[in-house]
Design a protein that fits this description.
Number of strands: 2
Distance between the termini: 19 Å
Largest sheet: 2 strands, antiparallel
Strand content: 25-35%
Helix content: 40-55%
Shape: elongated
Number of helices: 4
Oligomer: single chain
Length: 71
């Protein structure tokens, strides 16, 4: 977590953490594979996933954007 990151990299501060993709990312095939689901099913999964609360998304998230600042 953030505490472990702060201990390992004390000269950086996490300014923002944005979760970008969950299970729908994997179902789409990601960046290097063909989709695992037909488009209609993928779209339904993506819409369902968009309504997940943050704690659930933390468990199933696959990509994120982290903004750091040097202290």
């Amino acid at each position: 977590g953030r505490a472990a990151f702060a201990r390992e990299f004390p000269s950086f501060e996490v300014l923002r953490l944005e979760r970008l993709a969950g299970l729908s990312y994997v179902a789409s095939g990601g960046t290097s594979h063909a989709p695992f689901l037909p488009f209609a099913l993928w779209r339904a999964l993506h819409a369902f996933e968009a309504r997940w609360p943050e704690p659930v998304f933390r468990l199933f998230g696959f990509r994120m954007l982290v903004t750091l600042e040097r202290r």
